[in-house]
Design goal:
Layout: E1 2-4, E2 12-20, E3 23-29, E4 52-56, H1 69-84, E5 88-92, H2 98-111, E6 120-123, H3 125-136, H4 143-148, E7 161-164, H5 167-175, E8 180-184, H6 193-201, E9 208-211, H7 220-225, E10 230-233, E11 236-239, E12 243-246, H8 256-262, E13 273-277, H9 281-293, E14 299-300
Parallel strand pairs: 3-4, 4-13, 5-8, 5-9, 6-7, 6-8, 9-12, 13-14
Antiparallel strand pairs: 1-2, 2-3, 10-11
Helix pairs in contact: 1-2, 5-6
């Protein structure tokens, strides 16, 4: 059985009923769990009682800030960089949902009449395709977005927005000195066109690199978040002179409270064991303690390639 995980469009938690020797065992695999009160998507669905749960734990020790300030932060960063300093804002963003959330927030600024008057580029063919898919499946939107659709038929389109397809157009953006906002994948800045944009802008103090999601610590995005002053890009070292900003509340992964809410449909007494995966070790240890505090007695943090007999 599949239930909506609320993480990205089409994401699902998987629930298996396993029959062996006349006995049924219920096993749930959460996959990535989304946010309750997400900017675009519906909340994760409840699910039937499980015997065993494999649960992600990405943000098991932390809490996302409220979603409302995102529009205000975007406007402030774009105004400060593009209008006051005549620089570029480079935003590494995952192609599916994260890019659409950014477009949705920028569209909201236009609806309020406060969107900065600069060019906006989405430089990722996959991001354009993902945006078109999301436009076609309005049934996945939450009630807030459904209300906006009553007076704005395209919540991802606004003045000054252009999708970039060809490599030639992408290269031209690097050579254009005029202020603009470039949204490009990958989200951790480890590959894709955004890495070229960062290479060409990172040593100019007029520019800003804006991180809007989780970055693995060793990735280029993770190094910038950590405040490194020199980074290696395509084998060469670059001084980090541009401003690096972070909007942490845009993660599509649920935080500690969201993960606990995801489990609130379960009777802890009936869950024989929870396995924590997809998280850093210290985070998992903290989250395991929280789970034990609310009654889940047997919480495990499996090692890579470990086999467990249920």
């Amino acid at each position: 059985c599949f239930t909506d995980a609320g993480h990205i469009v089409g994401s699902a938690a998987v629930h298996l009923s396993l029959l062996e020797d006349g006995k049924i065992t219920q096993l749930t695999f959460s996959g990535d769990v989304g946010r309750y009160g997400d900017m675009l998507l519906k909340n994760p669905q409840t699910f039937s009682q499980a015997d065993y749960i494999i649960l992600e734990s990405t943000y098991g020790d932390s809490y996302h800030k409220d979603l409302d300030p995102i529009e205000r932060q975007l406007r402030e960063i774009i105004h400060q960089t593009c209008v006051l300093k005549s620089g570029k804002v480079i935003i590494p963003a995952f192609s599916v949902v994260r890019t659409q959330e950014l477009l949705f927030a920028l569209n909201a600024l236009e609806l309020k009449g406060i969107l900065p008057d600069v060019p906006f580029y989405v430089d990722s063919p996959l991001s354009e395709k993902a945006t078109m898919v999301l436009k076609e499946h309005t049934e996945v939107y939450n009630s807030r977005v459904q209300q906006i659709l009553k007076y704005d038929e395209d919540v991802f389109q606004f003045k000054g927005l252009k999708f970039i397809q060809s490599v030639e157009e992408s290269i031209a953006l690097n050579e254009d000195p005029r202020p603009c906002v470039i949204i490009s994948s990958s989200g951790m800045a480890e590959a894709g066109r955004v890495k070229h944009h960062i290479k060409n802008s990172i040593s100019n103090d007029r520019n800003t690199v804006l991180i809007v999601g989780y970055c693995e610590p060793r990735s280029l995005g993770g190094q910038l978040m950590a405040g490194k002053k020199v980074v290696e890009i395509f084998g060469d070292e670059y001084d980090v002179r541009s401003e690096v900003r972070v909007i942490r509340s845009m993660s599509a992964h649920g935080d500690s409270d969201d993960l606990l809410k995801f489990l609130s449909c379960q009777d802890p007494e009936q869950v024989k064991r929870i396995f924590l995966v997809h998280g850093e070790d210290q985070v998992q240890r903290v989250f395991a303690g929280k789970l034990r505090d609310i009654g889940f007695k047997n919480v495990s943090i499996p090692e890579q390639h470990q086999s467990i007999d249920l």
